[in-house]
Amino acid sequence: MIGIDIGFKWFIFVVTALLATGSSLMMVTRKNPIHSALWLIVTFFSIAIIYVLLNATFIAVAQVMVYAGAIMMLVLFVIMLIHLEWGKAQPAPKYSFPKLMGGLITVMFFLQVLAGIMAYTNIGKKDTYTPEMLASMGNTQAIGTLLYGKYVFAFEIASILLLVGIIGAVVLAKKIKD
Amino acid sequence: MEPIYIIIEMIVKNIVVVMVLMGLVAYTTLLERKLLGYMQVRLGPNRVGYFGILQPIADGIKSFFKEDIIPNEADKTLYVIAPGICLFTALSMFAVIPFGSTITLFGREIKMVVADIDAGLLYVLALATLGEYGVVLGGWASGNKYGVLGSLRAAAQMISYEVALGLAVIGVIILAGSLRLTDIIAAQQVGSWFILKYPFGFVFYLIAGLAEINRTPFDMPESESELACGFNIEYSSMKFATFMIAEYAHMFVVAAVATTLFLGGWSGPFLPGPIWFLIKVFAIIFFFIWERGTFPRLRYDHIMHFGWKVLLPLTLLNVVVTALLVALGVL
After folding, report:
1. Model's pTM, two decimal places?
2. How close is the nearest chain B Cα to the Cα of A174, in Å?
3. What is the band of B163 on the pLDDT scale with cuts at 50, 70, 90?
4. SS3 of B267, please?
5. Is B262 exposed, middle or buried (0-12, 13-18, 19+ CB in 10 A)?
6. What topology does CATH give the domain A1-88?
7. Cβ contact (<8 Å) for A70 and B152?
8. Number of Cβ pairs closer than 8 Å across A and B?
9. Looking at the complex, does the CB of residue A84 fall below 8 Å from at least one CB of chain B?
10. pLDDT tens digit sequence for B219-243
11. What is the ipTM of this complex?
């Protein structure tokens, strides 16, 4: 990715950023839940492109595989099972307590992110993993070295959390025998 | 290295790969019909041209001139996009598969792979998961009960067998120490082919791969006898043909990935790389056609039981054993 000059990168970034925000807006405004899910896939995909621009090929591919692929497939599957009579969504009241709370929390989160971006300053310090070094040693290897070296504890904790999730799902789905 | 040459090289490579792939896909349909014909003691297509050699072209022209029907109940946009998603992902998966070493043209070294990316193997798996959306959306957007049933089955089956597919290739990553497909081939050129070191992985990969491309023992999404063709029931004309092309292209990709991961890719004595690559790929495709002529369709619950209760534990065990053997220095 180093060979591509900065103007071209900027152009791609602007296009994908617009695509990501546009498709997430489309996602929350669609009536049909399947369409919402599909727009969410587009959002995930454009975020993956932004990862590629940041020299994080591995994370980009993992993003597509896990989020855009597996998780959204499950979401679609569930929507299709629940919502077989499509196009007949119940009319919801225009203003309700959950909607109001949800909107409020979303605005709060947005302000937080905005404050974070405003407070961010580039201190100019460069870490060990520069783009040149990533290109020479390979992105996957760099991530593997960090995950199983410096951050192995956090990695194992995350895997235990996931395991607990799976076991919980199995326990919930198990039929209780009388 | 001026960037203009890089761009020209990329475009030419893309066009060549897609064109060759499409040609091969067209003739794979003929090969399948011929071979199935001989297996069932009949001749197969033999009217269009000598030995039926023009049959794929006739099929293409015929489906092009058929009436294109979009049902009233259909979700029009998704109905039109779905075959495109299938074809797009199947073709883009081919981008990372190396089909030869380097050649020198006009004083430039050209790698015989469209994109030699670092996470190549993961890229293939990621696009394979995206390709399922074509099947799932195609069935759902038709607004047909059989279509929706086919889609649901497709989604469940593909999610289940994707896990086994991912686990089956992990042994290869352990052995090669890289996700880059060119590195995996290089590792096999130094040592022996991974099918010898990791034979069960190859078997599991083929089984999970068959489920992934919905071919005969696992062709649940389009089982004719129960679902009247399943997810593509409402499709006609070129859209139906696109689904078919995508299916065969996907089969080609599964065979090509199996070749790259387990059979040493394009490497081989005497003949040039691309020829060896095609020989190995067609050996696997022959196997796919052969088993289609041999096995009946499994029952749906059997498929799911097999996927989760047999294949998943076995592939997990296989990964653990391979990792142990590599750690002990046996492999």
Report:
1. 0.83
2. 16
3. confident
4. coil
5. buried
6. Four Helix Bundle (Hemerythrin (Met), subunit A) (1.20.120)
7. no
8. 77
9. yes
10. 766 666 666 667 777 777 788 888 8
11. 0.79
